[in-house]
């Protein structure tokens, strides 16, 4: 491919130059004819912006291809598919885009032309004929090849079109994708791919000169539809590539390259259906909109999505270069991170919530915090590599231990084992909370946390890698040296980052926007303490008070009431909330805490009000006039273990014992009329309403005449079979389905009906605290108290629930489960 470099350089100059020349001309034409976008509630620009900029991109792209054709016409003539069919399809798409920018076209008209253009491309020979996945033989698609290819072409076209919501976003992502395709073309020796991709890259780069924020011209549907359709065609060429290295993963390469527009469009499609909207109706909830809602600026949002696209592009290239096992591990990692990112943006919770449920406020994003995390993770990766190289030197080159079975370093690098080892360390760091260490933790505690985590990891590696038949002292000693190297390297890296950031007051040690809850003498004393100690790094932006009768306090504005905390946090990008009230009602304190849950990274309280926080874990901060409040007593790894255990036990109960549950269902059907299963709305974590399932134990429509009432002793509504299954708690078995769905846990406070929850909130103190955790099938209250028969019973059970919340642990969960078995076997507490 080296002989192509001169012509590639010429193509680059021509594509860039033509685009830079044509775009201003098109802009002047669009301004004169008033062809452009006016501001609206769905758009982020605030003035009229001309469209048709896509003509500039197309001109530069075509000019570059003409140069390539003049240099090497044979490459175009010997393409594995008909370039005429693809060209005509692109002309249809360009015509559609131009007409839509000038006159406007409805959804049906757009789809009709897109289907026609896609049919031409498929007939030209570009088609997904096989489904290729790692470690599997290619699966022929047969009659499904045409509809799948059609879906791909039309889907990617519209995905890029929908991505065009911010200045420079869609064309920048398209340029990154084309750069990745260019690298793949060079690696595989495909001249046609390199010609097309380099022309598109520099045409897009030239247009960014006028389209990056603040944009002076939009590319409109002329550009976005063209880019989407062309990238879809190019990705099909990648899928059909004959190179042996890509035979097993070609479709995954195409998906990963275009992951950003594909994920964004998929989320939008299902989100709109969930909300009862038309799936093609535009809204302002795309990923770029959500990032801006979370506090990123226009440019920060675009650059962030560029970074994600570039990361996906690098991964896609590695999928081509590396072997299947290595590529699969990388793919799994990115899939997990994609899910976590979607969840962080609030889409996952939005999807599973009931349609009428108010969306939960989402904690704003901080660019400084993101960069800080990126530095720390990058530093950890470097430290892990240094530790590995040191242990390799110690084992094979130092002469300190005997060398038997020498292994070249290249074998470790080429093997996915090294990647798996790094991933396991990073996963352990995440579970141990090493990426969530607060800025005000002492460096001694910081170092101790690292040492403890690395010690546990080293012990696990010693056990897992132990060859119990032929264990050698040299191998065990090398593993200990490796663990010591990891501890020293990671600690040194992090202490260097902490020192640098603290010295310059940047990133992790920047001054944080802070609000103070309360306008009392306690708050006055706290503010004086903050003023005297600038090392606390609080940038107080204002106060929050339950009775904001005045507009300011100590020269700081009063921003609103406690119930407005989510809006205040979002508006001022607040990162710390300091609670300095003197409320006599603990329920008021719990309400403040609940409103801060998930909205801010740090919530701290003055020591005088710490006793009002029953049910929460607190942590004193050395040298700090506050106490840190943890909204959950479980660490990350404990929450994962708890959830994994929930799923495992539920599967064991539901699947192997299925014949028993079928027999129970038959007995219920024989005993009385009505449905076998009983479903009822209950209130779960954070007030989310869900359907709880049970085996029906009462007569049909038991509450038709009375409405919601408490069960009672010798309740006449209970059937004969119902009395038996209640005694053994068998009626609760279908709730394991709720556990699998993530609506419940095995252990936690029992969920109540919305009718009773509203009543209990008014009459039972601390009841809202129960809604901060996932409800359970059983709980401490269920094994220590009798069945609910009245409001007084519920009030009594609150004490047990608060005890559980204060002492929540995996050990206590196991204790409750064992006691539940005993209680269920004895039939105690049922009626």
Report on the architecture of this protein.
With 831 residues, this protein is α/β, with parallel strands linked by helices. Helices cover 58% and strands 8% of the residues. Strands 7-8-6-5-9-10-12-11 form an eight-stranded mixed β-sheet, covered by helices on one side. Strands 1-2 form a two-stranded antiparallel sheet. α4 runs antiparallel to α5 (107-123). The radius of gyration is 31 Å and the shape is globular. The protein starts with a helix and ends in a 5-residue tail after the last helix. The mean pLDDT is 83.
Query: C-alpha Rg, in Å?
Result: 31 Å
Overall average residue pLDDT: 83
Tally of discrete structural domains? 4
Q: Roughly what fraction of the amino acids lie in strands?
A: 5-15%
Into which percent range does the helicity of residues fall? 55-70%
Distance between the termini: 81 Å
Main sheet overview:
8 strands, mixed
Strand order of the largest sheet: 7-8-6-5-9-10-12-11
Low-confidence stretches: none
Number of strands: 16
Oligomeric organization of the protein chains: single chain
What gross morphology would you assign?
Answer: globular
- Count helical runs: 31
Query: What structural class do you assign from the helix and strand content?
Result: alpha/beta
């Amino acid at each position: 491919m080296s002989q192509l470099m001169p012509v590639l350089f010429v193509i680059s100059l021509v594509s860039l130059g033509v685009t830079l020349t044509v775009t201003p001309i098109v802009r002047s034409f669009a301004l004169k004819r008033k062809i452009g976008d006016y501001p609206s509630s769905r758009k982020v620009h605030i003035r009229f912006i001309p469209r048709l900029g896509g003509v500039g991109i197309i001109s530069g792209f075509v000019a570059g291809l003409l140069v390539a054709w003049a240099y090497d016409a044979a490459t175009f003539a010997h393409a594995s598919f008909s370039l005429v069919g693809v060209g005509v399809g692109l002309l249809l798409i360009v015509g559609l885009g131009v007409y839509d920018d000038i006159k406007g076209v409805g959804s049906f008209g757009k789809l009709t032309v897109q289907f026609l253009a896609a049919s031409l491309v498929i007939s030209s020979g570009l088609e997904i004929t096989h489904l290729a996945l790692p470690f599997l033989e290619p699966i022929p698609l047969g009659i499904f090849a045409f509809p799948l290819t059609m879906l791909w072409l039309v889907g990617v076209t519209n995905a890029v079109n929908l991505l065009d919501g911010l200045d420079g976003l869609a064309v920048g992502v398209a340029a990154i994708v084309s750069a990745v395709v260019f690298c793949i073309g060079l690696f595989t020796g495909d001249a046609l791919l390199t010609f097309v991709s380099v022309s598109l890259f520099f045409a897009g780069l030239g247009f960014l000169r006028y389209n990056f924020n603040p944009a002076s011209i939009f590319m409109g549907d002329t550009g976005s539809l063209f880019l989407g359709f062309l990238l879809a065609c190019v990705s099909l060429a990648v899928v059909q590539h004959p190179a042996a290295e890509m035979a097993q993963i070609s479709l995954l390469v195409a998906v990963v390259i275009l992951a950003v527009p594909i994920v964004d469009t998929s989320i939008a499609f299902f989100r709109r259906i969930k909300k009862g909207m038309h799936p093609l109706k535009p809204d302002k909830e795309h990923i770029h909109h959500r990032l801006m809602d979370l506090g990123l600026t226009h440019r920060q949002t675009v650059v962030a999505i560029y970074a994600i696209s570039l990361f996906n592009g690098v991964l896609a290239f590695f999928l081509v270069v590396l072997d299947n096992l290595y590529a699969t591990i990388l793919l799994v990692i990115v899939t997990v991170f994609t899910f976590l990112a979607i969840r962080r943006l609030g889409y996952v919770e939005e999807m599973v919530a009931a349609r009428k449920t108010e969306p939960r406020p989402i904690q704003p994003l901080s660019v400084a915090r993101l960069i800080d995390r990126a530095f720390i993770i990058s530093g950890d990766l470097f430290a892990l590599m240094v530790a590995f190289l040191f242990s390799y030197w110690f084992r094979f080159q130092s002469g300190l231990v005997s060398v038997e079975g020498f292994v070249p370093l290249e074998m470790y690098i080429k093997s996915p084992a090294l990647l798996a080892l790094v991933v396991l360390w990073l996963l352990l760091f995440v579970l141990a909370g090493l990426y969530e260490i607060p800025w005000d933790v002492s460096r001694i505690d910081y170092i101790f946390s690292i040492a403890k985590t690395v010690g546990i990891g080293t012990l696990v590696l010693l056990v897992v890698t132990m060859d119990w038949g032929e264990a050698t002292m040299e191998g065990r000693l090398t593993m200990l040296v490796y663990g010591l190297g990891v501890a020293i390297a990671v600690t040194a890296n992090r202490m260097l980052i902490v020192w640098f950031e603290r010295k310059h007051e940047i990133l992790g040690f920047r001054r944080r926007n802070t609000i103070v809850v309360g306008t009392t003498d306690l708050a006055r004393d706290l503010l004086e303490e903050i003023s005297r100690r600038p090392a606390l790094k609080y940038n107080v932006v204002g106060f929050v008070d339950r009775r904001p009768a005045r507009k300011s306090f100590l020269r700081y504005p009063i921003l609103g009431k406690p119930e407005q905390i989510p809006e205040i946090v979002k508006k001022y990008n607040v990162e710390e909330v300091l609670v300095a009230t003197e409320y006599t009602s603990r329920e008021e304190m719990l309400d403040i805490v609940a409103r801060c849950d998930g909205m801010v990274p740090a919530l701290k309280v003055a020591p005088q009000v710490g006793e009002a926080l029953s049910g929460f874990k607190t942590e004193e901060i050395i040298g700090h006039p506050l106490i840190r409040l943890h909204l959950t007593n479980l660490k990350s790894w404990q929450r994962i273990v708890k959830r994994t255990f929930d799923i495992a036990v539920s599967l064991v109960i539901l699947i192997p014992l299925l014949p028993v549950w079928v027999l129970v269902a038959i007995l219920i059907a024989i005993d009385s009329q009505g449905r076998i299963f009983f479903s009822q709305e209950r209130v779960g974590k954070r007030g989310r309403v869900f359907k709880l399932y049970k085996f029906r134990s009462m007569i049909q429509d038991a509450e038709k005449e009375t409405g919601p009432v408490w069960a009672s002793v010798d309740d006449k509504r209970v059937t004969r079979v119902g009395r038996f299954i209640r005694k053994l708690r068998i009626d609760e078995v279908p709730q394991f389905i709720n556990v699998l769905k993530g609506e419940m846990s095995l252990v936690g406070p029992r969920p109540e009906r919305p009718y009773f929850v509203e009543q209990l909130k008014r009459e039972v103190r601390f009841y809202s605290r129960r809604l901060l955790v996932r409800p359970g099938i059983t709980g401490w209250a269920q094994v220590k108290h009798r069945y609910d028969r009245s409001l007084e019973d519920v009030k009594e059970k609150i004490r047990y629930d608060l005890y559980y919340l204060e002492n929540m642990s995996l050990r206590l969960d196991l204790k409750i489960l064992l006691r539940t078995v005993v209680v269920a076997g004895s039939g105690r507490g049922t009626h």
